[in-house]
Specification:
This protein is mainly α and about 375 residues long. The chain contains 14 helices and two strands, in the order ααααααααααβαααβα.
Length: about 375
């Protein structure tokens, strides 16, 4: 990423390119997904396969190229990108994640849609659905992936759940929410300098936060219920609801409350709008609290500049904590580190119990 310094591009031009690429990405999402899910059922098998191949290319190679390119442009769009240590780390993690999930794993396993199982429970149950040959998701994909592709997706799903759970306990939500999330987290970071696309970034007032908290609870309960339903179904317990109805409910939830809503937030509010009620984020916030994730605010004296609060996309009043020299332990914190990077006096630090242990070991 340092090599971008040699490219003669101004922050204004970089920001302009970022806006063009965001508009292109949103437009392609609607176009390609619409063709894949809406048109393939009404054309010949040959045309349907061509459309699906285009969809796979968009989700894998094109998305990876976009993440890496926009990461480089974002570093140019921010004038003081050298001082944004945690932000640079997030961009690097997202680029590596995209390369592994969308390029390396598909090539290694032969399953070009293995990304379906990249998000752990309770966000999506596709990995659970692949564990039973009775599910419509399994029946639809077994001809496309084969048994080896199904097995690879299930193994990857299990590994991701274990890895994200342990990593969150040790390193906090930063790992998933600001390094692995290829649904919304990546967009919030690679397009951070220009979000929202229209107007200025808006902070959530108390009434909005209250409403989002209610949505957060509903989404969390719904996602947990869906996960439990599939776990029981796999165990042979049928709760008198047909599995096709449950699967369709999850698809509707994803397309409307998650994907469409996230894009709407990118355009009109901020990149982290969906993160306020993401069910996976809600679960990981519980694990992060066990691992003692926090933003330390007493390394030096706060000068009350307010840059930390203004840089927080989750509307956490970091400055208020810093003035009282109290750690920020909000369950909304996604660990992006923007507040830490913004502090001119280096008063703040992202911490977990494990990171502090590592720090003490290096110092000792």
């Amino acid at each position: 990423m340092r090599s971008l310094k040699a490219i003669n591009i101004t922050p204004q031009k970089a920001a302009r390119f970022l806006k063009y690429l965001l508009v292109l990405y949103i437009a392609l999402c609607f176009l390609v997904a619409g063709l894949n899910y809406g048109l393939t059922q009404h054309v010949s098998n040959a045309k349907a396969q061509t459309i699906h191949a285009i969809y796979e290319f968009f989700e894998n190679e094109l998305k990876t190229i976009l993440i890496i390119l926009c990461s480089l442009l974002s570093l140019k769009a921010f004038r003081n990108s050298d001082g944004r240590r945690l932000y640079r780390g997030s961009l690097l993690m997202f680029s590596i994640s995209a390369l592994i999930i969308h390029i390396i794993l598909p090539a290694f396993t032969g399953n070009r849609e293995i990304y379906y199982t990249a998000m752990p429970l309770p966000w999506a149950t596709t990995g659970l659905q692949l564990m039973t040959s009775e599910s419509s998701f399994y029946l639809k994909h077994i001809p496309l992936w084969g048994l080896s592709g199904i097995s690879a997706a299930v193994v990857f799903f299990i590994i991701m759940n274990i890895f994200v759970g342990i990593a969150t306990l040790l390193f906090g939500r930063r790992v998933q929410c600001s390094g692995l999330c290829l649904l919304n987290g990546f967009a919030a970071e690679i397009w951070a300098p220009i979000l929202p696309l229209i107007g200025k970034e808006r902070k959530a007032n108390p009434k909005v936060l209250c409403g989002l908290s209610a949505v957060r609870i509903i989404m969390f309960v719904l996602s947990i219920a869906l996960s439990v339903w599939w776990l029981l179904f796999i165990s042979g317990i049928n709760l008198f609801v047909h599995q096709d109805l449950i699967a369709r409910l999850e698809v509707v939830k994803y397309l409307s409350i998650e994907l469409l809503a996230a894009m709407t937030f990118w355009v009109f509010w901020n990149g982290r709008g969906y993160c306020y009620y993401c069910p996976l984020g809600s679960f990981l916030s519980l694990l992060a609290s066990i691992g003692r994730q926090r933003i330390r605010t007493d390394l030096k004296n706060c000068v009350s500049c307010g840059l930390c609060s203004r840089s927080c996309s989750m509307s956490i009043d970091v400055a208020a904590f810093a003035k009282r020299r109290e750690p920020v332990t909000s369950s909304l914190c996604v660990g992006c580190g923007h507040c830490v990077d913004a502090c001119p006096t280096e008063t703040l630090r992202y911490e977990t119990a494990f990171l502090n242990l590592l720090r003490h070991c290096r110092q000792g």
